């Protein structure tokens, strides 16, 4: 269950959670400059230390955004992934994602905002102190994990980009680079690349929405969406777009990748909901990883993935069987 006690920014930095598997990764950041105007904000905490490969991140633990459920082991979190840019097998991202270079990295900001431009990733991150949030992740395929993410509230970034009153939605886009992402050059892929996702503005500004740059106390592994990904824990996992290179504020609801590919199966909202089954399987239960043939570790799925107190009001009056 979600622990409601809210933390103080005065909490000390946490100790790094031990892990059993070390992953070799490419350099995470470099000192590139933003094309757009600087985003310095007075009165914030000291700048977060920019991450480098294999190095622990300093962060503030956030008990108010945690759970008392057992965390999924690091090995499972990093070896069982959906990241079709590297293949459709669950092990393909861990096998091939090191072909992607995340140094340097920039994010293009465009649309209905007062601070558009191409920003070096560190210029989006460095005014903020990193937080650790332990969230449940529920895949639409009916498996789940509990992951300690490191990152920054999405709302903190979006506010600094100064969206205008015309901004009703936020669009996100993943890197498109077939030379580095073998799944994008596959002749068998049915996805119209690049991967696209979106949120309603009030969803994006919700306190749970998170931009993650690491997990288990260290920089984000490539296969988990390095160097920066979205985490929206009350929605199915495909909404938490990986390796973000574009953010657009817009008035019209964006089309999203899985919605375009199979609209009868995947909707724009994609809220975790055991009352609305996928056309090909039930959503009433989930398999919590790790699991096996003799120990499948099934559990009942909870509406909004257990975060209803924080997000249910966003959908008041909506028919969630229609707006799935």
TrEMBL record:
Keywords: Metal-binding, Molybdenum, Oxidoreductase, Signal. Predicted to be exported by the Tat system. The position of the signal peptide cleavage has not been experimentally proven. Pfam families: Oxidored_molyb (PF00174). Residues 100-258 form the Oxidoreductase molybdopterin-binding domain. It catalyses: L-methionyl-[protein] + a quinone + H2O = L-methionyl-(S)-S-oxide-[protein] + a quinol; L-methionyl-[protein] + a quinone + H2O = L-methionyl-(R)-S-oxide-[protein] + a quinol. PROSITE patterns: TAT. Its EC number is 1.8.5.-. Mo-molybdopterin binds at residues 81, 84-85, 139, 174, 224, 229, 240-242. GO terms for molecular function: metal ion binding; molybdopterin cofactor binding; oxidoreductase activity, acting on a sulfur group of donors, quinone or similar compound as acceptor. It comes from the Bacteria. One of its GO terms (biological process) is protein repair. InterPro entries: MsrP (IPR022867), OxRdtase_Mopterin-bd_dom (IPR000572), OxRdtase_Mopterin-bd_sf (IPR036374), TAT_signal (IPR006311). Its cofactor is Mo-molybdopterin. Binds 1 Mo-molybdopterin (Mo-MPT) cofactor per subunit. Belongs to the MsrP family. Heterodimer of a catalytic subunit (MsrP) and a heme-binding subunit (MsrQ). Part of the MsrPQ system that repairs oxidized periplasmic proteins containing methionine sulfoxide residues (Met-O), using respiratory chain electrons. Thus protects these proteins from oxidative-stress damage caused by reactive species of oxygen and chlorine generated by the host defense mechanisms. MsrPQ is essential for the maintenance of envelope integrity under bleach stress, rescuing a wide series of structurally unrelated periplasmic proteins from methionine oxidation. HAMAP family: MsrP. This is Protein-methionine-sulfoxide reductase catalytic subunit MsrP. It comes from Marinobacter flavimaris. The lineage of its organism: Bacteria, Pseudomonadati, Pseudomonadota, Gammaproteobacteria, Pseudomonadales. The gene is msrP.
């Amino acid at each position: 269950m979600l622990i409601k006690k809210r933390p103080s920014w005065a909490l000390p930095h946490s100790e790094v959670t031990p892990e059993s598997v070390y992953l070799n990764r490419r350099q995470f950041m470099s000192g590139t400059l933003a094309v757009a105007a600087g985003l310095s904000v007075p009165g914030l905490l000291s700048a977060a230390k920019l991450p480098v490969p294999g190095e622990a991140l300093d962060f503030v633990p956030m008990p108010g955004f945690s759970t008392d459920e057992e965390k999924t082991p690091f090995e499972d979190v990093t070896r069982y992934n959906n990241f079709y840019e590297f293949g459709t097998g669950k092990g393909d991202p861990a096998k091939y994602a090191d072909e992607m270079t995340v140094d340097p990295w920039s994010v293009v900001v465009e649309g209905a905002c007062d601070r558009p431009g191409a920003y070096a990733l560190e210029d989006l991150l460095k005014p903020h102190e990193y937080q650790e949030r332990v969230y449940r992740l529920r895949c639409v395929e009916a498996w789940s994990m509990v992951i300690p993410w490191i990152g920054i509230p999405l709302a903190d970034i979006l506010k600094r980009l100064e969206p205008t009153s015309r901004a009703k939605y936020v669009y996100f886009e993943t890197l498109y680079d077939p030379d580095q992402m073998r799944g994008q050059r596959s002749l068998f892929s049915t996805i119209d690349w690049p991967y696209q996702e979106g949120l309603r503005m009030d969803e994006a500004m919700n306190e749970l929405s998170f931009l993650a740059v690491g997990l288990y106390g260290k920089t984000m592994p490539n296969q988990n969406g390095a160097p920066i990904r979205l985490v929206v824990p009350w929605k199915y996992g495909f909404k938490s777009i990986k390796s973000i290179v574009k953010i657009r504020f817009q008035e019209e609801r964006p089309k999203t990748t899985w919605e375009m590919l199979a609209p009868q199966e995947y909707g724009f909202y994609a809220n975790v909901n055991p009352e609305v089954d996928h056309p090909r399987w039930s959503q009433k239960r989930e398999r919590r990883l790790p699991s096996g043939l003799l120990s499948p570790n099934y559990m009942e799925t909870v509406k909004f993935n257990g975060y209803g107190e924080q997000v249910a009001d966003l959908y008041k009056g909506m028919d969630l069987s229609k707006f799935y």
